[in-house]
């Protein structure tokens, strides 16, 4: 597909601003735009985990420009922005849902409808790109401007008894630890400990990233976090998980983990 003419695209997309307050007309014009910039020669999209989701195969830069175009409207009128976002999501096309996830991060962080909508969208999402957008930029304003409400929402996800929501909460908390300053690490650790101690093997892929993120913020908190994971009663799978991830952990914490594993060795033998 030839490179996108941004000046031309800006002229063609300007009409979306005029119908922003009319979700049905907005969607009609948006689909016309997607049809014009679609790439039907692409039969598969490797990033999609659900190929059944209809898609125009519109280049990602087009969606980024739409995001920038509509940002001011979403920030100026959160309620209308949420109506457009909800319409985009219900439409069901990949591009519409990805744009909805992008715009969700522009809504005022204190909007009372935001936590429920985020929870609904995350629960329904199977596509990695959309999920990444929701957990990253979609939650960014709430993380930065409403940290207490953000941690309350993450706590609800963790204790929802739904493995997907728990894993998404862990991913969102990693974003929080990495990207934001003046965070409440002890409270974050208290949220994370129960699911990781209950099913460490289920979150093996995120444990390394999580410990590294905490370690970058505070070495002492990272050591405390690891020690808490090894407290009795110890899940049977915890030592095996840490033996596998040990080489990938920060160098400064590897000796402490090695010592904890050494202390656990007699317990492992007694279980055999």
Task: Give a description of the structure.
This protein has helices spanning 6-13, 15-18, 23-37, 60-76, 78-91, 94-104, 114-124, 128-135, 140-145, 147-158, 163-179, 185-198, 204-217, 219-229, 238-245, 254-271. It is mainly alpha-helical and 272 residues long.
Key terms:
69% helix; 16 helices; elongated; 272 residues; mainly alpha
Residue share in helices?
Answer: 55-70%
Give the strand content: under 5%
The unreliable regions are 42-51
On the 0 to 100 scale, the average pLDDT is 87
Biggest sheet architecture: none
How many angstroms does the end-to-end distance come to?
61 Å
Summarize the structure.
The protein is built from 16 helices and no strands.
Layout of strands and helices, then pairs:
Layout: H1 6-13, H2 15-18, H3 23-37, H4 60-76, H5 78-91, H6 94-104, H7 114-124, H8 128-135, H9 140-145, H10 147-158, H11 163-179, H12 185-198, H13 204-217, H14 219-229, H15 238-245, H16 254-271
